[in-house]
Design brief:
alpha+beta, Ribosomal Protein L25, Chain P, RNA Polymerase Alpha Subunit, Chain A, domain 2, six-stranded mixed beta barrel, four-stranded mixed beta sheet, 40% strand
Length: 214
C-alpha cells in the first residue's frame, strides 16, 4: 500500500456523543475497525489527513494503531448534514488479495449527437475487486451516440481483475431527445384553436362586407 494512505490511529476508551465531540474539538475523528472475526477496535484518526483521503470512494487505508499495522476498507462515513464535517468512520478489516464487493461511481465522458440528452440511469455499479485494487470509477463514453442508444451494465468495460455484480441488463445510459411537456402541447393546441377561430371570424367579416357592397 502507498505510504500516502497510511494513517496513525490511537485506541480510544471513551465513548458516547460527549467523548466524540471532545475528539473532534481537538482535530480527531472517532472510528471503529471491525471484521475477520476480530473484536471491534475503537480508534481516533487524525482529522485533516483523514478528510483528505476520504475525498475518494472505497479508500483502503493502512492503519498504524499504536505500532500495529492493519489494512482497512472505508465502509461508511457519517457527516454532519449541514456543515458536512466528518463525525464518524466505519472501517472493515481486509487482507491483501482478498476480494470485496463495492459500489463504484460511473463517469460519463464525450458528447452525444447534437440535440440529444444523456440520461444517467445508474450513478454507480456494484463490482467485485481485490481490496487493494479497487477502481476509483468506471468510464462510459457517449461520444456521438444518437437517440435511442442505450448502454447496459454488461456493456461497461471494467478494469482487469474486476467483475460485475450489478444485473448485466441494468440500464446505465439512455440517449433521448427533449419532449414537449403536456402543458406545452395544451398551449400549442389552444393557440392553434384561437388562430383558427380568428381566421374564421375574419373570413366571415370579409364575406359580410363583400355582400353589403353588392
Amino acid at each position: 500500500m502507498s505510504e500516502e494512505n497510511t494513517l496513525s490511529a490511537t485506541t480510544r476508551t471513551s465513548f458516547g456523543k460527549g467523548a466524540a465531540r471532545k475528539l473532534r474539538a481537538v482535530g480527531q475523528i472517532p472510528a471503529v475497525v471491525y471484521g475477520h472475526g476480530t473484536e471491534p477496535q475503537h480508534v481516533a484518526l487524525p482529522g485533516h489527513e483523514t478528510a483528505l483521503l476520504l475525498r475518494k470512494s472505497n479508500v483502503v487505508l493502512t492503519l498504524d494503531i499504536e505500532g500495529d499495522k492493519q489494512l482497512a476498507l472505508v465502509k461508511d462515513v457519517q457527516k454532519d448534514p449541514v456543515r458536512q464535517i466528518i463525525e464518524h468512520v466505519d472501517l472493515i478489516v481486509v487482507r491483501k488479495g482478498e476480494k470485496v464487493t463495492v459500489d463504484v461511481p460511473v463517469h460519463v465522458e464525450g458528447e452525444s449527437f447534437p440535440g440529444t440528452l444523456v440520461m444517467v440511469e445508474q450513478n454507480t455499479l456494484t463490482v467485485e475487486a481485490e481490496a487493494t485494487h479497487i477502481p476509483e470509477s468506471v468510464t462510459v463514453s457517449v461520444e456521438g451516440l444518437e437517440e435511442g442508444a442505450q448502454i447496459h451494465a454488461s456493456d461497461v468495460e471494467l478494469p482487469k481483475g474486476t467483475t460485475l455484480v450489478t444485473d448485466p441488463e441494468a440500464l446505465v445510459i439512455n440517449i433521448t431527445v427533449p419532449r414537449a411537456s403536456a402543458t406545452d402541447a395544451a398551449d400549442a393546441a389552444a393557440d392553434a384553436e384561437n388562430a383558427a377561430a380568428q381566421s374564421a371570424e375574419s373570413a366571415a367579416q370579409a364575406e359580410a362586407e363583400a355582400a353589403e357592397s353588392e
